[in-house]
Design brief:
The structure holds 2 protein chains of 2 kinds.
Chain A: H1 12-17, H2 28-39, H3 44-66, H4 75-90, H5 96-118, H6 123-143, H7 145-148, H8 173-195, H9 197-207, H10 209-214, H11 219-245, H12 255-268, H13 275-293, H14 298-312, H15 316-329
Helix pairs in contact in A: 3-8, 3-11, 3-12, 3-13, 4-5, 4-6, 4-11, 5-11, 8-9, 9-11, 12-13, 12-15, 13-14
Chain B: E1 3-14, E2 17-28, E3 32-36, H1 43-51, E4 58-63, E5 66-67, H2 73-78, E6 81-83, H3 96-107, H4 122-134, H5 150-163, E7 168-172, H6 183-191, E8 198-202, H7 206-212, E9 215-220, E10 223-228, H8 230-235, H9 237-245
Parallel strand pairs in B: 3-8, 3-9, 6-7, 7-8
Antiparallel strand pairs in B: 1-2, 1-4, 4-5, 9-10
Helix pairs in contact in B: 3-4, 3-5, 4-5
Classes of the chains: A mainly alpha, B alpha/beta.
Chain lengths: ~325, ~250
C-alpha cells in the first residue's frame, strides 16, 4: 500500500503507525534500474558494478548513517566477502547464489569479532582501529599468496550458469539482473531493519547515546549487532564483485575503496537509506567522465566535489532535495 | 517504611577531590523527596552515582533492597529506575512522539526487534501519545524536539522518563532554564505523578521544592548536612546560613 499523506490530515498516532509504509519515490531507483537495462544495453557490465557499489554503500549507511559509527575500514568486509566467494569458486564451489550466504557469514563473523573489540572505543581511536583492521587484512591477503594469489590477485574463478540456465555472458546481462535482484533483496532487508524498533534505536544511539543508556537500551550490544549485519551485507557486495568480474585483487581491501564508498555516501546523503542509490551512481559516472577528461588528476576533481558537498550541502544531494521540498511546501 | 532506594556510605573521588563523601540516604516508596544544596555540593554527582552513570569509589546503591552497585545503567533502568538530566539529553532530530515511543518500546523489551515495523505496535505509539497528552505535549507530537521551546523540551525529558514507568524517578533540576511562568506546568506534572512512584528531585527553585517535597535532604560539600520536613529545614539555622551566606536563594 502506498501512502503519501501530509501529517496535518491524520492523527500523530496514525502518522507514526504509517511511517514505514512505502512511498512512491522509493520506487524510483527500481524504475531507473529496469529502464537502464533496456536503454543502455552496452553498459550493463558497468551497471552491475554500480549496483554492487550501491549495496556496499547501503551497508555503510547502516553503520555510519544510522548508528553513527564512523569507519575508514569498511572495505575489510567487502574484501573478505570477495575473497570468500572467489576462493570457494576456485576450489570447486561454482554455484554463485549459494556462495553469497557463505560470504555473508564469513564477513559477518569478521565484523562480529572486530566489532566486539573495536567498538569499546570512540572517536579518533575507533577511526584508527577500523583503518587498522582493513590494513591488517589487506596485508594478510598479500602474504597468503597460496590462498589469495597475493599481489597478482585471485584468478581462475569460474561459475556455473545461474540456476543452471543463465550464463554469465560477455555483455553483462546475467550479471546485471543478478546484481539487481540481490540489491533488491538487500534493500528490502535494510529498509525493514531501519524502520523496525532496532533501526530506530540505532538512530537514538547516533543522536544521543547517553539517553539511550538512560532508557535501558543495551547500546554496545546494538552497535555490535549492526556492525555485524553491515559487515555481512558488505560481504555479499564483495562476493558479487568477485563473481561478476571473476577476479579478486588486493584493492578490494584497500583504504582507497573504504574512502571511495564513504565519499559515495556523503555525496548521496548519509542516514537516508537512499543516499547510496544516488551517491554511488553519481560517483562512478563522475569517475568515468572525469578520468576521461583528466586521466592523471581526475581524483582532484572528485575531491573538489566532496569539498563543495561538505561545505554547502551537508546532507548530500538528498539533503538538498529535502531542503528544497520543505521550502516549496512552506 | 518500604525503602525504594538506599545508598550506604556512598563516596566518589575525582583524584584528591572528594565530591560525594559517605552519603547514607533512604528514599521511601511513594516519597516526594528533594535534595538541595549550594552549587558544587555534589547533587548531580549523587544522582549520577545512583543512576549508574558514575562508578562510586566506595559504598553501595540498593534498589528495593537489591544491591545494584555493580550493575550497568541499563540494568538499573530494567529494575525500575528512571531519570531526567540537568541539561536536556534528548533525540533532538526525532519528533517528540518518537522520543517517547523509544522509551516505551525499550520498557516493553521491543527496542531490539529487527523484522517487525516500529509502527506495527500501535499500542506502544498510543501509550506514548497518551503520555504526551498528560504532559500537555500532544500538539508538539510530530515536531522535531530541536524545534520546540526549551521549557517544553524539559517536559519531553520527563515524558521519556515516565515512559519507562519507573518505581524510582530521579529529577535533576526539571525547572532549570525554564521561564518562571512555565514552571507551574512542570509542578502540575510532578504533582500528578503516580502516588506509588518514589520521586527524588534536585532543584534550585525553592518555591517549587517547598511546594512539592514532603522531605528535604541538604547536601553540603558532598555530605548530608541535615534532613527533615520543609518546615524543619526552613527553621534550621545551618541551612539558613548556607543559603543566606551565599547571598542567593537556591
Amino acid at each position: 500500500m502506498f501512502v503519501y499523506r501530509s501529517a496535518a490530515t491524520i492523527s500523530p498516532v496514525d502518522y507514526m503507525v504509517c511511517s514505514h509504509r512505502l512511498r512512491w519515490p522509493e520506487l524510483l531507483p527500481w524504475v531507473a534500474i529496469i529502464a537502464a537495462y533496456f536503454a543502455f544495453p552496452s553498459y550493463l557490465a558497468l551497471g552491475a558494478q554500480v549496483m554492487i557499489m550501491v549495496l556496499f554503500a547501503l551497508s555503510l549507511d547502516l553503520v555510519l548513517g544510522y548508528a553513527g559509527i564512523v569507519t575508514l575500514g569498511h572495505a575489510a568486509f567487502f574484501g573478505v566477502g570477495a575473497y570468500t566467494a572467489g576462493i570457494l569458486a576456485v576450489h570447486g564451489w561454482e554455484e554463485a547464489i549459494t556462495a553469497l550466504p557463505v560470504a555473508a557469514a564469513v564477513a559477518g563473523a569478521v565484523g562480529l569479532v572486530t566489532g566486539y573489540i573495536i567498538l569499546r572505543t570512540r572517536g579518533l581511536t575507533l577511526l584508527m582501529l577500523t583503518l587498522a583492521v582493513a590494513s591488517m587484512l589487506g596485508e594478510a591477503a598479500n602474504k597468503a599468496n597460496w590462498l589469495t594469489g597475493g599481489a597478482d590477485g585471485l584468478q581462475g574463478i569460474t561459475l556455473r550458469p545461474l540456476l543452471g540456465v543463465f550464463h554469465f555472458d560477455l555483455f553483462g546481462r546475467t550479471a546485471f539482473v543478478y546484481c539487481a535482484l540481490v540489491l533488491f533483496a538487500g534493500w528490502v532487508f535494510v529498509r525493514r531493519l531501519v524502520h523496525a524498533p532496532f533501526g530506530r534505536s540505532l538512530t537514538g544511539i547516533r543522536e544521543n547515546a547517553a539517553r539511550m543508556h538512560a532508557i535501558g537500551a543495551p547500546v554496545r550490544q546494538r552497535q555490535i549487532i549492526v556492525y555485524t549485519i553491515a559487515a555481512a551485507l558488505a560481504g555479499v557486495a564483495g562476493a558479487l564483485e568477485a563473481q561478476t568480474t571473476q577476479f579478486v585483487g588486493l584493492n578490494v581491501l584497500s583504504f582507497d575503496l573504504s574512502g571511495a564508498v564513504l565519499i559515495m555516501l556523503i555525496f548521496g546523503g548519509v542516514g537516508r537509506l537512499y543516499g547510496a542509490f544516488v551517491g554511488a551512481p553519481l560517483y562512478m559516472v563522475a569517475q568515468d567522465a572525469l578520468s576521461r577528461l583528466d586521466p592523471e588528476y581526475w581524483f582532484f576533481w572528485v575531491g573538489l566535489l566532496l569539498v563543495v558537498t561538505v561545505m554547502f550541502a551537508r546532507g548530500g544531494i538528498l539533503g538538498v532535495a529535502d531542503l528544497l521540498r520543505r521550502k516549496v511546501m512552506r | 517504611m518500604t525503602v525504594a532506594l538506599e545508598t550506604r556510605g556512598l563516596r566518589k573521588n575525582f583524584g584528591a577531590m572528594v565530591v560525594t563523601n559517605g552519603v547514607d540516604f533512604k528514599l521511601a516508596a511513594g516519597a516526594r523527596h528533594a535534595l538541595i544544596g549550594p552549587n558544587g555540593a555534589g547533587k548531580s554527582t549523587f544522582i549520577n552515582l545512583i543512576a549508574g552513570r558514575l562508578t562510586p569509589s566506595a559504598g553501595s546503591v540498593l534498589l528495593a533492597g537489591e544491591n545494584v552497585t555493580a550493575l550497568s545503567q541499563e540494568a538499573r533502568v530494567k529494575r525500575g529506575l528512571g531519570r531526567t538530566f540537568q541539561i536536556n539529553t534528548l533525540f533532538a532530530n526525532l519528533t517528540v512522539l518518537e522520543n517517547v515511543t523509544m522509551a516505551v518500546s525499550e520498557r516493553l523489551g521491543r527496542g531490539g526487534d529487527k523484522l517487525r515495523f516500529a509502527g506495527s505496535r500501535r499500542d506502544i505509539v498510543e501509550e506514548a501519545y497518551e503520555l504526551l497528552k498528560r504532559l500537555h505535549l500532544a500538539e508538539d507530537a510530530l515536531r522535531p524536539v530541536r524545534e520546540i521551546a526549551y521549557g517544553r523540551q524539559r517536559l519531553v525529558e520527563m515524558a521519556i522518563a515516565l515512559g519507562l514507568r519507573p518505581r524510582v524517578l530521579l529529577l535533576d533540576e526539571p525547572a532549570a532554564g525554564v521561564p518562571s511562568a512555565e514552571t507551574a506546568v512542570i509542578l502540575d506534572v510532578m504533582e500528578a505523578l503516580p502516588a506509588d512512584m518514589a520521586v527524588l528531585i534536585i532543584e534550585h527553585d525553592m518555591d517549587l521544592v517547598f511546594r512539592f517535597a514532603k522531605t528535604i535532604t541538604v547536601l553540603v560539600r558532598g555530605a548530608v548536612l541535615t534532613e527533615g520536613t520543609p518546615a524543619e529545614i526552613v527553621a534550621d539555622p545551618r541551612v539558613r546560613e548556607i543559603y543566606l551566606g551565599e547571598g542567593r536563594h537556591g
